[in-house]
Amino acid sequence: MPDIINIDPNGDVLLILEEDGANAEETSQSPSQSPSQSSSQIQNQLRVQVSSRPLILGSPVFSAMFTGKFREAVALQSGSAEVPLDDDPTEPLIILLHIIHGRTRKIPRLVNTETLTEIAILIDKY
After folding, report:
1. In terms of C-beta density within 10 A (0-12 exposed, 13-18 middle, 19 or more buried), how is residue 75 classed?
2. Alpha-carbon torsion 69, 75, 81, 83, what sign?
3. 3 state SS of 46
4. Which of 11, 32, 37, 105 meets the CB 3.0–4.6 Å disulfide criterion with 41?
């Protein structure tokens, strides 16, 4: 069973992240292998429960995703949505999600330069 981080336990969105290092395994898969997920890929998934409202308010990308005609918006109208975010670094994204949700006690007071750079890239992306 994949790990779950509850940033908002009552959240209506489940972000599905590949834990850092999991993408290397996925890209090494040969084209002849089945596109279905192997058990090791599922074990490398991290699920983050968040609320769509702060994401919509804080991000034009998530706003378009959850209020437009995208698959995620349609799913959200039914109650909840799952969004895969395979390409983003896990730790910086979780820090950014805590910031967007106002969870200031969960935000580290010190981060290294690499993490700060990755957070800045994510801010620009979203």
Report:
1. middle
2. negative
3. strand
4. 37
> In sequence order, what E strands does 26-111 have?
45-50, 81-85
Query: CA geometry: angle at 40 spanning 14 and 28, to 5°?
Result: 105
pLDDT value, residue 22: 47
Quick count: other Cβ atoms within 10 Å of Cβ 19?
A: 14
| pLDDT tens per residue, range 95-105 | 999 999 999 99
| CA 98 – CA 96 distance, rounded (Å) | 5
82 Cβ contact partners less than 8 Å away, ≥ 6 residues apart? 13, 14, 15, 16, 75
Strand ranges, E, within the chain: 3-6, 13-18, 45-50, 81-85
Asked if residue 102 lies in contact with residue 109, where contact means CB atoms within 8 angstroms, the answer is no
Helices 113-125 & 90-100, crossing angle to 10 degrees? Answer: 60
Q: Which residue has the higher pLDDT, 45 or 36?
A: 45
